[in-house]
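Hi support team,

I submitted a single chain yesterday and got back a structure, but I'm not sure I'm reading the token output correctly. Could someone confirm the output below corresponds to the sequence I sent? I've pasted both exactly as they appear in my results page.

Thanks,
R.
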Amino acid sequence: MIADRARFKIAKKIERLAGYRLPDRAFNGTMLETLSSGINFDSFDFAVREQLLSFFNDFLRCNCRDTPLCGCPEKKFAQKVLELRENGLDHRQIAAFLLDEYSIEIFPADVLSFLEDSVHVLEAISDIARLRGSPRLAQSTDDHIRLIER
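Hi R., thanks for writing in. Yes, this is the structure output for that exact sequence:
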């Protein structure tokens, strides 16, 4: 999954504030729990604080009982990448946006690979929808495929 490739550029800063070693992967359970546990965001400079608050608001807010280890952050991240692509950004621009907005580093090639895999999954869903007699679902997946491939 694409979330497994996402790394925090500011992981060392978070680690220093937390007082213990943390992995640099943004969606690692330990990192997510640290960010959700009431870490003092005011200790960071303005830019870092804004990036972390954006990350928290966009990916860590859910009503699941097991939050943040419920899987929602990873799904929301994948959805965000697809949304960015459907809005016209290419894989390099998506990687740059994630770095600017959330301080998440990800290789553009990983984004491209994820988008290609997503198209294959959507094609399979479209084929199955047609076989099962669900033309609206098939059309919806075809629309998403067109937006991703453009």
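A quick pointer for reading it: Strands lie at 7-8, 104-105. Let us know if anything else looks off.

Best,
Support desk
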